[in-house]
Amino acid sequence: MRKRTRNSFSYGSMWMSEAPRLSASISSTLESLMTGAASEDFASAPRSISSSSVLTVSTSPSSSASESMSTSESPTDAIKRGASDIHIEPYEKDLRVRYRIDGILYEMMHPPLRLREAITSRCKIMARLDIAEKRMPQNDRIKIKTRISGKVKDLDYRVSVLPTIFGEKIVMRLLDKANLMLDLTRLGFEAESLRKFEQAILKPYGMVLVTGPTGSGKTNTLYSALQRINTPEVNIITAEDPVEFNLAGINQVQMKEQIGLNFAASLRSFLRQDPNIILVGEIRDFETAEVAIKAAMTGHLVMSTLHTNDAPSTISRLMNMGVEPFLVATSVHLVVAQRLVRRICSYCKEPIEQPPAGLVEIGFKESEARHIRLFRGRGCERCSNTGYKGRVGLYEVMEINDDIRELILSGASAVELRNKAIENGMITLRGSGLQKIRDGATSIEEVVRETVK
Ligand SMILES: [Zn+2]
Questions:
Q1: Which of 23, 128, 145, 245 could disulfide-link 59, Cβ–Cβ 3.0 to 4.6 Å?
Q2: Pair 44, 58: CB distance under 8 Å
Q3: How far is the CA of 29 from the centre of ligand 1 (A)?
Q4: CA dihedral 195, 200, 201, 206 (to 10 degrees)
Q5: In sequence order, which residues have a C-beta less than 8 Å from that of residue 39 and are 6 or more positions away?
Q6: How far is the CA of 385 from the centre of ligand 1 (A)?
C-alpha cells in the first residue's frame, strides 16, 4: 500500500503530470489578475448589501463576460478539484500557490516573484481592500461569478491578506453553499449516535455542544442541526464569527469584537429577542459559558462549540472555565466530538488483497481482523491520483444521562466520564473510525491520523 503522510509533497509530483494544462489555466488567471482585464467590472460593481461586507461582483452577459470569466479561472480550477482554500504565498525567491483539498494542502505552482505586486494588488482590488495598506492584515468577502460546467454561479469567497516578511500572503476561502451538506443523515453519524443527537436537538431547552479542532466540520454539523429544526414556529438566532453561510429563516449575527459585540454580549441581547434556539459560535471564556448556561436553563435550546479533543473532556473544560459542576450537569444534554477523514474515491476504489498487520493494535477484534475486507483508492483522474475524494465525519456522541450526571456532580475526571459513557454504549471517535473502515468509506491511515485508541 502506498504510504501517505499528512503533508505529502509526493502528491506534488503526481500533480506535475498535469502541470501543463494546470499552469496554463493558472497563468492565464494570473495574467488577467496582472493586467486587470476585468477591473472595470469589479470596480463598478455595486455592493449588494450596503451595510454588510459582502460584495457582489456583477458581470453582465455582454462582451465583458468572457474577461471576467478568465479572471475567475483559478477559482474555477480550484472548485473543480474540490479545493476549499487557495493560498498565494510570497517567499524570498518565488511565489507559491497551494490548494487545500479535503483538508490537505497541495502545491500547485510557483509563479515568478516579479508577479507578486500585480497579483496582490489585483486580489485586493477584487476584494475591495485598501491596496495602499501593506503593513496591516485585512480581510473581506467577495462574490465572484464563476462558470462551472457550463453554468454561471455566484460564489462567495473570504479573502484574507496577511503581511509576511516577504510580502503579503493571500488566502481565499471558498464559501460554496453547494459544498455544505446540510443533511444530518449524510454526515457520517452512526445510526445510534444520530438518534441521540436528534433527540437532543429536538428538546425545547438544554445545551448541545459540538467539539473538535479547527476544520473538523463543527459548523457544518451545527448548521445541519439548525436546518433540521428550522421551522416557522421557532425563533432561531446565531452569534457567529464569522458568519460563513446565510441560512434562510435564521437570524444570524456577525460578531464585531472591536465595538464590543462579542459572544457574551450578543447572548445577553438575544435573551431579549424572544428566542427558542440560540447558536453561539464558540464558548471560550467563563462569561460566555455563564450566559449560555443561563439561557439553556431558562427554556432555550443552546448549541455551541468548544475546542476539546473528545466529548468527556468537554465537561472538564467547562468546569475549568469556572462553571459549577451542578450547572454543567443540569444544563448540558449532549456532547458531540468530531473529526473529518478523507473518503476513499468511489471511482477507483478496490479491495485490498492482503489485510495489513496491526489491525488488532488499532482496535479491531482478533476474530474480525482475520476476515475483514479493506478497501483503498487506486488513484485516478477524478481524485487527482490521491485515492481520496470528499470527506466523511467521525462522531463521538455522549449523552448526559443520570449515570453521567451523577459522576459530574461527584467531580469525576474526564477518564471516569469516558469509561462510564463507553459502558453506556457511547461509540468513541476511534470506534466511529473503525466503523468507517468496515464500511469501506475510509482507510486505516486516515483513522489512525485523526483519532486515538
Ligand atoms: Zn480516484
A1: 145
A2: no
A3: 27
A4: 180
A5: 122, 125
A6: 6
CA angle centred on 75, ends 102 and 28, rounded to 5°: 130
Q: What is the residue-level pLDDT of the chain in tens, covering all 453 positions?
A: 444 443 333 333 333 333 334 334 444 554 444 443 333 333 333 333 222 222 223 333 333 333 333 334 456 677 777 888 999 999 999 999 999 999 999 999 899 999 899 889 988 988 889 999 999 999 988 887 777 777 887 888 899 999 999 999 999 998 877 777 889 999 999 999 999 999 999 999 999 999 999 989 999 999 999 999 999 999 999 999 989 888 999 999 999 999 999 999 999 999 999 999 999 999 999 999 999 999 999 999 999 999 999 999 999 999 999 999 999 999 999 999 999 999 999 999 999 987 778 899 999 999 999 889 999 999 999 998 999 999 999 999 999 999 999 999 999 999 999 999 999 999 999 999 999 999 999 999 999 999 998
CA 296 to ligand 1 center in whole angstroms: 45
Ligand 1 centroid – CA 450 distance (Å): 22
Cell numbers placing 383: 481524485
In the reported structure, the alpha carbon of residue 376 is separated from the centroid of ligand 1 by a whole-number distance in angstroms of 10
CA of 183 to the centre of ligand 1 (A): 24
> Which residues share a beta bridge with 280?
239, 304
DSSP conformation class of 309: S
Which residues, other chains included, contact 309 with Cβ-Cβ below 8 Å and sequence gap of 6+? 211, 213, 337
Distance 16 CA to ligand 1 centre (A): 17
Residue 198: exposed, middle, or buried by beta-carbon count in 10 A (0-12, 13-18, 19+)? middle
Predicted TM-score of the model (pTM): 0.80
Query: What is the 345 CA–ligand 1 centroid distance (Å)?
Result: 5
Among 245, 234, 247, 246, which residue's Cα sits nearest to residue 277?
234
CA–centroid distance, 344 to ligand 1, in Å, is 8
Ligand 1 centre distance from Cα of residue 77 (Å):
18
H or E stretch covering 253: strand 251-254
With beta carbons less than 8 A apart as the criterion, state whether 262 and 292 touch.
no
* Cα of 3 from ligand 1 centre, angstroms: 16
Question: 190 C-alpha vs ligand 1 centroid, how far in Å?
Answer: 25
